[in-house]
């Protein structure tokens, strides 16, 4: 089905407006009656003397073979700023659909916006309709509760029409009437094709993400493995994520017809892992680390009560860094740690499955905290580790972002201080010393040394009466 409008013009250009807002999460339905109304052609004008005649044709942007009627949209914050959020979007096709194309444009099912896009996350980049780019991906225009999907318009030459002059002008005819001495006219006929479809929010839902399933897994009625299994979910499908517990995700499995099946998936089912017992133990807990069998990278830490043998906490969201397979980065509630090195690619035997975590009393409260290896830091060495502090009231380990970002940490249990050191190039060194005050790190001392070819400067800082006081000393190199 298509709609055709004729215009005679020298230039054709469609200007699309874009509202800098995010879509509300939920289920969106294709609106068949709006597909041709959303394209604004009111501004198009023309003049036959320009030598072109253009026929404007509006077609569906969604390939008919895909039988798409619905799309799901998720929304999540991309920073601590509550006003900044971005969407993921997925069109719902029939199960195991054949690949579909639209004028040689492969139709992608999943789209995401700039800050959440990467080549490896199975999502296509969502271009704005006003970016004025030539793309083989569709363009999007949206407001809070609707969006339009479009392809870049295409202009095709159809044929040319020749109209001879009624009376060819001669010198004696000057000046002559335009209707009596019109010149020969050749009109080039073009077809400008625009592709457009509109989706509108039908059912608002609190979707935070769209999860791609790497494995087959059951969908449970309740967050309990003894709960009835509602249905089987299959590898390659996606579900809409609603909320999480330490062990479960609540999700919606949505059919191509927009029918929702809500249930729970076990987070252990998302990827194939091998759980390794750790040598590190506390009087209260022992620990297991889950290692992805395909990447040889840790993906979770389980905290086990030594008396009851129950799992009391799982630190999850650990994924391999790219492109180096033997590094991982750890996300704890969207806080990204530095890469955690677990093996040396030049020495595979260096990987010790029972020594992936260590214990240290990082905040001097007499309770052991967890440490996972961090980035090597290059030649600095400037290496970092990842720290999870234990809180006895909640009996939980919590990722500490400050300690995990500090290179080369040293702990002085006698003075209850933490010192971080860093090397910057060949001739610059510095260190900072902190003390935990009311569970917060407080800077109490600094040292910095910088050398040039003939002199060295040292600056020290000391906390006095609540303020840092600095002193710099410079001395010449005796070798010069």
Automatic annotation (TrEMBL):
| Xref: Gene3D superfamilies | SH3 Domains
The segment annotated Disordered runs over 455-480
A Pfam family reported for this protein in Swiss-Prot or TrEMBL: SH3_3
Give the superkingdom in one word.
Bacteria
The SH3b domain extends over: 219-270
Q: Which InterPro entries match?
A: SH3-like_bac-type, XAC2610_dom
Name it. Answer: SH3b domain-containing protein
Q: Which organism is it from?
A: Snodgrassella alvi
């Amino acid at each position: 089905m298509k709609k055709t409008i004729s215009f005679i013009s020298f230039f054709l250009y469609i200007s699309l407006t874009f509202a800098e807002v995010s879509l509300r999460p939920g289920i969106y339905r294709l609106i068949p009656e709006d597909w041709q109304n959303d394209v604004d052609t009111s501004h198009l004008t023309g003049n036959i003397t320009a030598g072109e005649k253009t026929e404007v044709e509006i077609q569906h942007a969604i390939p008919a073979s895909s039988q798409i009627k619905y799309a799901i949209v998720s929304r999540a914050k991309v920073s601590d700023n509550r006003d900044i959020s971005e969407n993921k979007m997925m069109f719902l096709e029939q199960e195991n659909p054949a690949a579909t194309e639209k004028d040689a444009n492969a139709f992608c099912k999943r789209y995401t916006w700039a800050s959440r896009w990467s080549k490896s996350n199975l999502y296509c980049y969502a271009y704005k309709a006003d970016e004025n780019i030539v793309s083989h991906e569709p363009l999007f225009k949206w407001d809070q509760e609707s969006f339009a999907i479009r392809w870049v318009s295409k202009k095709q030459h159809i044929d040319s029409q020749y109209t001879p002059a009624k009376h060819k002008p001669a010198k004696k005819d000057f000046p002559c009437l335009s209707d009596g001495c019109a010149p020969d006219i050749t009109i080039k006929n073009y077809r400008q094709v625009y592709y457009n479809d509109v989706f509108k929010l039908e059912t608002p839902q609190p979707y935070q993400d769209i999860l791609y399933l790497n494995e087959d897994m059951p969908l449970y009625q309740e967050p309990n493995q003894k709960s009835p299994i509602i249905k089987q979910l299959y590898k390659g499908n996606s579900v809409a994520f609603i909320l999480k517990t330490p062990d479960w995700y609540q999700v919606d499995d949505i059919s191509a017809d927009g029918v929702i099946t809500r249930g729970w998936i076990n987070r252990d089912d998302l990827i194939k892992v091998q759980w390794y017992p750790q040598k590190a133990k506390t009087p209260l807990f022992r620990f297991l680390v889950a290692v992805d069998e395909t990447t040889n990278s840790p993906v979770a830490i389980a905290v086990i009560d030594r008396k009851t043998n129950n799992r009391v906490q799982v630190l999850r969201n650990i994924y391999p860094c790219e492109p180096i397979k033997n590094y991982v980065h750890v996300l704890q509630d969207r806080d990204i740690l530095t890469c955690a090195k677990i093996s040396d690619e030049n020495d595979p035997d260096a990987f010790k499955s029972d020594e992936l975590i260590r214990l240290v009393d990082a905040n001097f409260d007499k309770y052991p905290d967890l440490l996972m290896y961090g980035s090597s830091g290059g030649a600095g060495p400037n290496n970092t580790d990842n720290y999870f502090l234990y809180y006895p009231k909640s009996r939980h380990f919590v990722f500490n972002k400050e300690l995990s970002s500090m290179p080369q940490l040293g702990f002085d249990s006698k003075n209850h201080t933490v010192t971080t050191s860093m090397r910057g190039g060949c001739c610059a060194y510095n260190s900072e010393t902190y003390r935990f005050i009311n569970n917060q790190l407080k800077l109490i001392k600094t040292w910095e040394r910088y050398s040039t070819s003939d002199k060295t400067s040292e600056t020290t800082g000391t906390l006095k009466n609540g303020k840092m006081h600095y002193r710099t000393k410079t001395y010449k190199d005796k070798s010069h």
